[in-house]
Design goal:
Oligomer: single chain
Order of helices and strands: HEHEEEHHHHHH
Strand content: 5-15%
């Protein structure tokens, strides 16, 4: 089984587009095809333009077998949103909604331990990947939203009353849920406290 994933070509459009054509031809030589819906051209300097640059149109006509569409707002690179602020915010919002949408499905599990492990070890760890290369100004509110959804899912599964997440009577349970195991907690670190550290770790790795 052969596959290629997350091929990103950067540089001047006059050079990058022909390079993308060469890459597509190389994939075809081993019976692979690029995914058309994930293949696009993003030009940061044209984020406010109403139409793509003439050079892109000319390249699209020249290479009709790889007529890459123009993405005005942004593109996802290895899952990370790269583009104007509204594109980045919208992409992260969709991610948060995707994470939250799986919580009710996990709530149907009959085994409480299995539910806890999947929510805390899997669902709770989906977001940190995206915290590494997106500015905290975008990710902090998303992390808070995901944390609230996870706590609510745990409480609903445990049979807490409606709107318990807003009741001070359950603040101790929340503290225990988020506190480290060494101090008697359940060790479920909230995503919101990872935001800044994850970003600086990701950036330091990128600049090495």
């Amino acid at each position: 089984c052969l596959w290629s994933d997350n091929l990103v070509i950067t540089g001047r459009l006059s050079k990058a587009y022909p390079a993308a054509v060469d890459a597509a031809n190389a994939l075809r030589s081993v019976d692979l095809e690029q995914q058309a819906h994930d293949s696009t051209v993003y030009i940061p300097s044209y984020h406010a333009a109403m139409a793509p640059p003439p050079l892109l149109t000319a390249l699209q006509h020249q290479h009709r077998d790889l007529a890459l569409p123009w993405s005005k707002e942004g593109v996802k690179v290895a899952g990370y949103p790269l583009g104007n602020p509204s594109f980045v915010a919208r992409t992260l919002q969709c991610l948060a909604e995707s994470i939250e949408s799986e919580l009710p499905l996990l709530g149907m599990l009959p085994d409480g331990l299995l539910h806890f492990q999947l929510v805390t070890k899997c669902t709770n760890n989906r977001l940190p990947y995206f915290l590494r290369c997106v500015a905290p100004s975008f990710t902090a509110c998303i992390a808070e939203k995901v944390d609230e959804g996870i706590w609510k899912a745990i409480g609903n599964y445990a049979g807490f009353p409606l709107w318990f997440e807003h009741l001070t009577a359950y603040s101790d349970e929340h503290v225990q849920f988020r506190s480290p195991i060494g101090v008697g907690g359940l060790g479920v670190t909230p995503n919101v406290v990872k935001v800044t550290a994850a970003f600086y770790v990701g950036m330091s790795g990128a600049f090495k």
